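Let us work through a complete example step by step.
Step 1: write down the sequence.
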Amino acid sequence: MRLIHLAALLPLAIAAPTQQSIPELTTSEWSSIQSSFVEGARSLSSWSWSAAQDVVAEFDELKGEQGEDRTIWQQLLADPHSFSKIVKLIEFEGHAKDILDNKDMSITFFAPNNDALTPPDHHHGHHHHHDDDDDELLASIIQTPSLATISSLLDSPSFDIAGNDDDDDEKKKRRREIFRKIVGFVLKYHGLPHAYTAKDLAGNNTFETALETKDGAFGGLNQRVRVEKSVLPPSLKLNFYAEILVSDKKASNGYFHTIKYPLLPPGSLFDEYYIFPEVFSTLTSAVQKLDAKHYYDWSYDHEKSKPGHPAFTGFGLATNFAPDNLAFAKLPEGLKRFLFSPFGGNVLAKILMYHYVPKTLLLSEVFYHEKHHDHKHGKIVSMWEAEGDDKSFKKEVEVPTALANTTLHVTIDKSKVPLLDGVYKTTIKVNDHYVKAFDVPAHNGATHVIGDVLIPPHKHHDHHGEDISSVDSWSNWEEWLPAWAAEQ
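Step 2: predict the structure and record it as tokens.
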């Protein structure tokens, strides 16, 4: 396998539908996490800070002299027992150190500790790196750019990617540069451009990271990270799996928080559906049946790319209200058979298009549409939360779907939890159906998981001539659904 051109590196780092995963978690553990957040989504946004104060106080004692006069980088460097691996990665990458050591900055950094950067097989002393399969290993790491895997390579005597930059071996030089790009790419996803305490993080559901999206997949916006809050036990998790172990480590240039697993920049919408078959196998089957993967995917185009000019395939930024397997299971049996029959393809396509909001990032606290780009003042991103300390709000919005002249009615309600200071609960409804899991980040947009297939607007009369199209039911679908799809 030939080495992939350096210019193609970054898109490949997030476009691996069959291999993209978090190496620190098994498939069954991933499935368990996904099942938990889908089934318990309505309680994800509660967080008891009064209950967590004692825990934070204990961490304060461990700070000793507090270290607040030192930068994030200086504090990481001073704690090799916890952070020697991330320090080695940062030094290898070469650029992140300047940001983390800049006293004029005000930033947040999520720091994986040494345990987080030790792959499971590393604990048993197994190394699978051989000189004769360097190219395959390199391609594998590009597709799954985990800091833990790269950290393991840096420590491996049999795979010298951290060798002498003056080495005459051009292949080794090029390999090191590729790995530096990967590490820099992933490190940026661990940083936020503003300083946030754990309480600040619990106040919102997503945050902009330092990772810019330059390949056209995300409207030019920076990638975002999702924050999950839990009361029992009190905890914060990033992207549903990376728990914050130690929070609010104050530095002269912001805060850093120790995390249990390194973060991996999210894959495309389709990638994420594909790796959770227990939740989305029916949806992915529908997409593949219709040969419509490109609407949900964003990937590097090997055929069209030229050296220094990478090309991509896909439709870019989108928000998708994704029905899970249970949603499809609720449909009448005859309708399910029809949709996946040779005769139901057009109807199935129109139903999926009704759940798809193109060129739009719609999150619980953020709204952005690509057509609102202002070339004079930059991108216009609306933050829906209220000004000041009170973050509660209620917003209703009509968003256009991929079907012409068809919209979805979305209601977002972020409200205070009584008797719990600073605690908010967020709910989202689409066409009066609750969203099970919201703000799931993707490289080319976001997913909101729903437990019902949305019924499109249609004209339908009963046997007495009465208009019953407003009745939210799939009953008698044979009488109106094919005609509706034919009109679109």
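Step 3: interpret the result. The CA atoms of residues 335 and 343 lie 11 Å apart.
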